[in-house]
Write a structure and sequence with these properties.
By secondary structure, the protein is an alpha+beta fold. It has one helix spanning 10-16; strands at residues 27-29, 36-38, 48-49, 52-53. InterPro entries: Ribosomal_bL32, Ribosomal_bL32_bact, Ribosomal_zn-bd.
Length: 60
């Protein structure tokens, strides 16, 4: 079985892990109601998606 000869330093370990972080959700603003909405998601407030009404809401 292969066994490392020396311990990897903390610096080397952290360099390897630099790409493992979480990235924040990409938010866009709805053109109709200006609510922050994640990309590729129907607006929960007005039901608009790519310029079309997908879900009818009671507030309209």
């Amino acid at each position: 079985m292969a066994v490392p000869k020396r311990k990897h330093s903390n610096s080397r370990t952290n360099k390897r892990r630099s790409h493992d972080r979480l990235t924040p959700r990409q938010l866009t603003y709805c053109p109709q109601c200006s609510t922050a909405v994640p990309t590729h998601v129907v607006c929960p407030k007005c039901g608009l998606y790519q310029g079309r009404t997908m879900v009818e809401s009671e507030q309209q």
